[in-house]
Each structure stands twice: as structure tokens, then as C-alpha cells.
Amino acid sequence: MNQQTSKTQQAFFEQSKALVPGGVHSPVRSFKGLHTTPRFFEKAKGAKIWDTDGKDYIDFCMSFGPLVLGHANETVENALKEQISRGWSYGACEPYSLALASYLVERLPHIDQIRFVNSGTEAVMTAVRLARGASGRNKIIKFNGCYHGHLDSLLIKAGSGLAGTSEATSDGVPKNVTDDTLILELGDLAAVREVFERYPKDIALIAIEPLPANNGILPQTLEFLQGLRALATEFGAYLLFDEVISGFRLGFGGMTERTGITPDVVCYGKIIGGGLPVGAVAAKKEIMEHLSPIGNVYQAGTLSANPLAMVGGLETLKQLTPEAYVALNSNAKNIIQLFTDWFATFENGRFKDLSIVNEGSLFWIHPGEAPKNASNMPAHLTERFYELFSVLLDKGIYLAPNAYEISFISLAHDKATQEELKERLYS
Ligand code: PMP
């Protein structure tokens, strides 16, 4: 096997670059900085994905998180086929979103109501407007390195495709929009209190990924998260848990369940749609009823609660039993052990400086010490990642093509996949 891109793939990328900025529809797909062009994929099943040359890869990107069951899960596939024969968008009330909403509200004690949107970004955008509308305040607290989608007001010091750039913000975001966003360092509770004391009546919302996972994985202490809860309550602000990655991933109730902390508003994405475009904002009824058509906080969507996506989401979530999480975490444990052992031995320790941060079925590979926050990321992170990525790509193992992005393990990364991974690593 050879990591050289084939002529066909190069031709696809050239054609794509002519038609699409940078050849991609989302920047983290671009292989920027890597000395090869992005692979074009045309088929996926279980833990594997096939490129247009017919080469298969064990996939650890997994569409950046939604595919907790693996690619093309058969139960979901059959339900989608059944649904598609009844039409795929009505722009009207239907029972499919009702089924998904009631499934979720029954199982998530911190929410009474939910509104479905089409992406994580839309969910957070709605949550921010909701918190501002409901509180009559404008300022929001955001943490350095957390990514909440590409809405203007939170596109500052974000992670994901923006991580590692010197200007961690975007052109086209007016200064007056970001003036109300207060950026603080993860873990620094004293700084959070300080800004609340400076603006006691102005802060609408604290936004946080309760498990920050867009700048590698930066686990926070329970005390820090509890401290945020207490400060939000003391100063009358809302606490938003952005569970777009962690929701349904670290157990069904995500970080909310794991920490026992009740946020005021929660955002979901990724797994909630099982790989179809779904996001959601959810909270208690008193807060949710600020949304239109009952309240004055406007929010809408032509394709919101799309029946196909609702069915995909529900059929995915229904498979996430307590036993499924045991299997998922066991897959993760074995796979992380395989990578760790291989780092120590490959080519006389060529990767022996690499370690893994692991939370449930999420993991992140980094050189040196695990960082505490986004301001002390390891030296040579990008260079070391590129080297690793190329070696793995060659062996038919696909990571998300960016040093700051994390990897995802699914239920389909089972014993047989683990065996195959071992063979590929040592081939
Ligand atoms: N919040 C978090 C925590 C995310 O990780 C992401 C995307 N990776 C988003 C929001 C935005 O979601 P989307 O890409 O679906 O707009």
C-alpha cells in the first residue's frame, strides 16, 4: 500500500478545487498541511470506509462523531428505506419528530421540551438567542478552545478547524458582535467570578463543552463545572452545556448525566441524528416557551425535524442501551491499548513520544504531556500528527485529518475490527 494519492483521486481534488473553495465543503476535510490530497470516499460499512480506488480504511473519524453504531447500521438503514417511500420532507407537523422528542424527554430528566434544527451550529445559535431573549442580557462567556459551531458570536478562540491558527477568529465577524463575548481560560473559576462581578447584570449565558473535545480533549474537573453552575445561579445567568459531541456518547445522558450537574439549556447534534442532519436545543418548559411561536425569540427552519432525519435519529438512539455503552467502552479500551503498544514499538520507537487522552469512546493522540487548556498545547503537535497520520493512512487506518480533532470509536469497532487493526498496525 502506498499513501500516494492515485491519479483518479488527484483528478477529483483538482476538479473539486475549481468548483468549491479549497475543494471541500467543510475546512477540516481538506488535508491542509498534509503532503497528500484528501481521499474521496464512496462507500462505508461498519468500521470501514472505502475510497474511490477501492482501498478500505478502518475509520476513526466516523463522520466526526454521529456514527456511534458504525457506518450503515442495518436497522437504521431499513427504517430509512421504509421512511423514504413515504416522502422525505413535509414542511408540516408529522409523528416522527414527536416520537423522537418523547423518547428523549422521557430519558433526559433535565429537559421538558426540545426543538429540532439541522446542525449543531443552529442549535447553539438558537440557544444563545434564547438565553439573551429570556434574560434580557447580551454578554456571553465562552472558553478558549471550545468550539460551538460557526455562529459569529462564538467564533472566537474556537477549536476544531480553527485550532492552532494564530488568528483564532474569522474575518467577516463584526467587532461589535464579538464585543459581548467574554473569553476565559478553561479551569479558571476565579476568572469567571471576576467577570460576573464586573458585569453582574449583563451576562446572559455561560457556554461550555462540558467535555471540551475540539482542541484535543481537555477534561475539566467536576469542581470547575459545579463552580460554573453555582456562579450562573448566583448571578442569574443561564448555563449552556454544548453536548454536541458528548451527548449520547459518554452514556445516554452525556456529561449532564455523568456530572449530575443540571444545565439550564443543552445543545445536541451528531449522534442525535445518527448521521443525518439533526441538531437540537432543549431545556425546561419555562425557558423553551420563550421560543416562537409562543414567545418572542424567533427561530425557524424549512427542513427542521425532517422526517427521514428524525427516523434515523430515533433508530440510532434506540440501540444505545446500557449494554451498548459497555460494549462501546470495551471496544475503546482495547483499541487504545493497541495504539499505545504500537507507539512504543514501531520502528524502534519512532512514535514513542505519543500518548492518548481517552474519555469513553473518544480519544486524542498527542505528543508529550496532555495539555490542561488550549493555551498550553504540546509543542510540535501538528508535525507529529502529520507524520503519524501519513503512516496510518498508508496502512489503511483513517484518523480525522487534523491534529486538534479527536477520534471516535463505534460499536462496529468490534473484536474482528480490533484484530484487523492489529494486523494493519504491524504489517
Ligand atoms: N458544538 C460542538 C461541541 C461541536 O463539536 C460542533 C461540531 N463539531 C458543533 C457545535 C457544531 O456542529 P455542526 O458542525 O453540526 O454545525
List its traits:
15% strand, 2 domains, Aspartate Aminotransferase, domain 2, binds 4'-deoxy-4'-aminopyridoxal-5'-phosphate, Aspartate Aminotransferase, domain 1, seven-stranded mixed sheet, 427 residues, alpha/beta, single chain, four-stranded mixed sheet
Account of the protein in words:
The chain has 427 residues and is α/β, with parallel strands linked by helices. It has 2 domains: 7-72 and 321-426, Aspartate Aminotransferase, domain 1 (Alpha-Beta Complex); 74-318, Aspartate Aminotransferase, domain 2 (3-Layer(aba) Sandwich), CATH 3.40.640. It is 35% helix and 15% strand. The protein contains 13 helices and 14 strands. It has helices spanning 7-19, 74-84, 95-107, 120-135, 175-178, 189-198, 222-235, 254-259, 285-288, 307-317, 322-345, 381-394, 415-425, and strands at residues 41-45, 48-51, 56-59, 113-117, 139-143, 181-184, 203-208, 238-242, 265-268, 279-283, 354-359, 362-367, 397-398, 407-408. The strands form 3 sheets. Strands 4-10-9-8-7-5-6 form a 7-stranded mixed sheet, with helices on both faces. A 4-stranded mixed sheet has the order 1-2-3-13. Strand 5, helix 5 and strand 6 form a beta-alpha-beta unit. Helix 2 runs antiparallel to helix 10, helix 3 runs parallel beside helix 10 and helix 6 (189-198) packs parallel to helix 7 (222-235). The longest helix is centred in the C-terminal third of the chain and has 24 residues, at 322-345. The radius of gyration is 21 Å and the shape is globular. The protein starts with 6 loop residues before the first helix and ends with a helix. Mean pLDDT is 95; it is low at 164-168. It binds 4'-deoxy-4'-aminopyridoxal-5'-phosphate (PMP). Residues 64, 119-121, 124, 147-149, 160, 209, 214, 242, 244-245, 269, 279 line the site of 4'-deoxy-4'-aminopyridoxal-5'-phosphate.
